[in-house]
Amino acid sequence: MSLRASLHTLGCRLNQAETAIIANSLRQAGFQIVDFGEPSDVTVINTCTVTEQADAKCRQAVRKTLRKNPDTFVAVIGCYAQMAVDTISAIDGVDLIIGNEHKMNLVDFLDSGTKLEQPLVVHSPKISREEFTIETVGLYDNATRANLKIQDGCNFVCSFCIIPTARGPARSRKPDDIIKEARALVEMGHRELVLTGVNIGTYAGEGKNFADVLDALENIDGLERIRISSIEPTTIAEQVIRKMAESDKLCNHLHIPIQSGDDGILKAMRRKYTVRDFTEFIEFAHDTVPGIGIGTDVMVGFPGEGREQFINTKKILGDLPISYFHVFTYSDRQGTSSVKMDNKVDPQEKKKRNRILIEQGKRKKTTFYRQHIGSRADVLFEQKDENGYWRGYTTNYMEVKMQSDEDLHNCVRCVQLEEIDGNYLIGRPVG
Ligand code: SF4
Known about the structure:
The protein is of the alpha/beta class. It folds into 3 domains: 4-122, 3-Layer(aba) Sandwich (Rossmann fold); 145-370, tm_1862 like domain (pyruvate-formate lyase- activating enzyme); 376-429, CATH 2.40.50. Helices cover 32% and strands 23% of the residues. It contains 12 helices and 19 strands. The protein has helices at 13-28, 52-68, 79-83, 85-89, 163-167, 175-187, 210-218, 238-246, 263-269, 275-288, 307-319, 347-370; strands spanning 4-9, 32-34, 42-47, 73-78, 94-98, 120-122, 145-149, 151-152, 171-172, 192-196, 225-228, 253-255, 293-300, 324-329, 376-384, 389-394, 399-403, 412-421, 424-429. The chain has a 6-stranded parallel sheet, sandwiched between helices. Strands 15-16-17-19-18 form a 5-stranded mixed β-barrel. Strands 7-10-11 form a 3-stranded parallel sheet. Helix 2 (52-68) links the parallel strand 3 (42-47) and strand 4. The longest helix is centred in the C-terminal third of the chain and has 24 residues, at 347-370. The chain is globular, with a radius of gyration of 22 Å. The structure holds iron/sulfur cluster.
């Protein structure tokens, strides 16, 4: 009987993309992939270190796994494994720790999956800056959308961010290798590919840029949607926005982090744009691409963010045609330069600001959804919920649910958008 392996991902979409690839490499090596939480011979935990809270969640996940399944071989890999070998080694029962440089070769270090007395540590403090290829195709059980990794690492040095240390310098996946995986994912039935990386707008594989990758992907027969995941302001060429306006495949959706709406704070964060740059770009995208959905990340409580700076952020978020926000609260991250900054914001005040922006974000989302009531949109349906509604996304990233007796999994349907129900638009079949 083949050995069972389960995988768990913490953190970002890029981690999800990498877990999917590792899952397939395990399957190719003869493992049976089972759901995380089910008894398994090997458990892989792909970790995140973006905040100290994320670190704590990783340790919790490892401990919980070992409590439930003390005999499972535990491999802790990825960003937290890159940054905290000693802490992870001290958790009794961990068998393998692999940092970011070698994690994709996990299968080579499993041996027979027999538990070890001492954890095997595969770690290189220095991460390669070479262009890369990935041998395996991501395995996404039952998913309609698949993530496609095109890039890794970051050369920007935002003062709050540990990711350039955890993931290393910016590097790009070779263009042919991207296309090879994209074709394979489409053959496996995926209709939508979401491009992922740490800083995808800086893509530079074999002299090609991000727009070239989009061109090549657009030529893949059978691929219906290409979605750009989070992309840094200042890295998106106007050409990409114009392409978005014309293309049948490139989704009219951007997720572009503002972080703050105050120039002083942006400077202290070492972001590479001013509020005006950001505003002009968002307005250009909004005016150029019909119906575009624009999401953003915003951080509250960065050192030095007083009332005035916070109000500036709130105001710009109110003014801009942004359809949803993800709100983050600043916390000190050892190893980043903002730790040493003065004027830290009171924790209660940070909580309050977080709540204010979350509420504002909800209102913005409702306003955006309301603008679409009465119109039609193509929805890629993903799954049926417990109340019998099929749920899916429009190209501009609105969540739609619709009642239907038909099996709509992985089907694109044109629907009439009728009303708002919580986080969803309710759709009705057309025709
Ligand atoms: S762009 Fe800034 S926030 Fe994003 S990964 Fe790079 S350093 Fe971190």
